Amino acid sequence: MSTLVLVLSNLWAKKARSIGLAFAVALAVMTVVTLTVVGSGLENSAAAILKIGKADFTVAQKDVSDILASNLDQHELAEIQGTKGVSSAVGVLVETEKINAANPLFLEIGIPPSQLAQFGVTVLSGHPYSPNATNQMMIGWRAAQDFGLSIGDKFHADGTENTIVGIYSTGISFGDLGAMFPLPAVQAYNRVPGAVTLVFVKIAPGYRVSAVEQRIDYEHPELTTIRTATQFGRADRNLVFLQAAATGSTILAVIIGAILVGNTMMLSLFERTREFGLLRAIGWTRTRVVSLVLGEGLVLAVIGAAVGVGFSFLVTAVLQGLPQLAGVLHANYTPGAFWRGLFTGLGMTILGTLYPALRAGFLAPLQALSHE
């Protein structure tokens, strides 16, 4: 009988124990995968704004709890615009507002009409708002379709009634689901005169993006440059905490899971002492006995990991349906999430099984056969 067949036979013979161990692995994997998927989804949703400006990188205030709480003044904006190698630097004031249950994070951008083209905005119909208008706006074409709005219609935002004078496209779905307003109007409503949230920077030909990034980071230690979703996550403390929670859950799952698996496998070892002694007596090597015990654990780890991933799909779907997260959480099932789940299952099982496996392999045959 091959080792694999014997592994499967042993697991089937102890179905209750096998199901219990596989379920423990599944719970650990479900927790790790769900936190990773949710964290990645929230990070991508939050970082989607970076794509709207079609810039080489974005500049924000460093170490803010929420990236939309970033605040740069006109002096900082002017210095960024004057940095060597910068072709254009567009400062925008960004906020979100809950319009209805389907639009809990409706994007509202304050930007001067003269910089719309630099920001990658194409006016599809109508015209841009006036620079200092207090009740004019443009709406993204996707938002216009969703709300059934057209040129001349009224739109309530930030407690004000605005006339839609233009419909625009950014080529980015997140941006086309929002609206744009004159920068002074948004600044006045939010009582932050002269302030912007983010600066979208484009590099002049002949300059390296990384070099200009480093120059701005060096000259403005209170600011941070962001080019990727990962950098965005590092700049936003809320996302940093979420990433830390995912990492911490992985470590705890491996440690706690290894203890649970180890206890169960040690009990199994005591129950099967005579069996291991018999295998040694008929010529099984220590290595083969160790492989048998480890093989049982690895099979359960793979089964548990698969079940855990299935559970994570279910849990994530439930989370997406919660009113607090509807329209905000978009699950991001990356290969990294599945690999982390698999490594968690394998790690906790190998650590928990290794000592009992070594004990089984080094049992003295005569002593083991005489065990009651």
Set down the secondary structure blueprint.
Elements: H1 3-13, H2 15-47, E1 57-61, H3 74-81, E2 86-97, E3 106-110, E4 122-126, E5 136-140, H4 141-147, E6 154-157, E7 160-169, H5 173-176, E8 179-181, H6 183-189, E9 198-203, H7 209-219, E10 223-226, H8 229-235, H9 237-271, H10 273-281, H11 286-321, H12 335-361, H13 365-369
Parallel strand pairs: 3-8, 5-7
Antiparallel strand pairs: 1-9, 1-10, 2-3, 2-9, 4-7, 5-8, 6-7
Helix pairs in contact: 1-11, 2-8, 2-9, 2-11, 2-12, 9-12, 11-12
Summarize the structure in short.
By secondary structure, the protein is of the alpha+beta class.
Q: Can you tag this structure with a few keywords?
A:
13 helices; elongated; 2 domains
Description:
This protein has 2 domains: 3-45 and 239-369, no CATH class; 57-226, no CATH class. The mean pLDDT is 83. It has 13 helices and 10 strands. By secondary structure, it is α+β, with helices and mostly antiparallel strands. It has helices at residues 3-13, 15-47, 74-81, 141-147, 173-176, 183-189, 209-219, 229-235, 237-271, 273-281, 286-321, 335-361, 365-369; strands at residues 57-61, 86-97, 106-110, 122-126, 136-140, 154-157, 160-169, 179-181, 198-203, 223-226. Strands 1, 2, 3, 4, 5, 6, 7, 8, 9 and 10 form a 10-stranded mixed beta sheet that branches. Helix content is 54%, strand content 16%. Helix 2 (15-47) crosses helix 11.
